[in-house]
Amino acid sequence: MIDPLVTTYRAREAQYAALRDAALAHTTRLIGEAGLKIHNITGRLKRADSLADKLRRKPGRYRSLEDVTDLVAVRVITYFESDVAAVSRLLEAHHEINWEHSVDKSMMHDPDRFGYMGVHYVVKVPPEVDQFIPHVTEPPQHYEVQIRSILQHAWAEIEHDLGYKNREAVPREVQRRFYRLAGLLEMADEEFMALDRLSRDYAATLPERVQSEPDSVFIDAQSIKHLLDVSPVRDLDEAVAAALGVPLLTRWPDPERPQRLAALLHYVGVHSVGGLLGELRRNTGGILTFATRLLPRLPEAWLPAGGARPGTGLVNHALLRACANPSLDPQEIITALDMSGVLSTRQMVDVVLDTYAEISGEVKVDARHS
Q1: Does the domain formed by 4-189 have CATH 3.30.460.10?
Q2: Which residues form a coiled coil (predicted)?
């Protein structure tokens, strides 16, 4: 026999689906406006057969659909456990929380606690969401918001797939392994948070360290990202762009470019910021001459962008070092930067070597020519 609540739910399923979509959009907007970096936000609508199973397992507990608090749920997956608290504070500030049906599992202090730590809120439908729900006699009054870190989510999904709902469901011989795994995941979450803090601290101190002790700063994506905006790297880029009569694309949308530039510099033997800055200051004229001779011969590699990309001076510096050192191959740089266009990589290497021979006055044929 079908429970009357299941029948009612099926009749109103479109209304609950509208609530899911509106709640998801509302939560996404709140988190975006707060500037929080979140891994994923999804919405879920409880299946009618899942509701029927829940009603069978707990007969007499639910007298109306309003008593079932998880028909609609929004799930927020954060990168770090610390972000769970930030999202929680945001939701508490913008929603009326039903504390009787909400749970913060991070407040469970049992040292051998079983399961994952996360936050489940049951919130009253706010006006910003209510306006997008079809108006009926008995509209939904609440929905659930689940907040977990990626590792907490991984635990919950695996635990659910194994069918273990609580401590008593787990055979004694596997309980110890569950506790060990829970501890490992908690430690991993803490280590990821520590790495995030170290990364942010490193970025915050970069400007001062580059200024006061550049030889101690390693060439990496973060240091290159900083250098692209300051002298002499920025000055060299502007000089190349001016010589070519094109703009410097200071807002070029390529977040991976600092990482690729760092890899190129390592390839040609430049590993410290101090070493790089010294070389740029000593060889600015040569780099500029090389760039203004080379780039007009390879318009396919850069003109489609509409100007010179940030770091073009570093690219030409790396090409110069590769040309000057027979053990290095300019092809590695061209391939890494995906510079090939109409011309093949081999043809571009020949142009690079010819340009280098021209400005250096060499007449012998480089063995790296095709």
Answers
A1: yes
A2: none
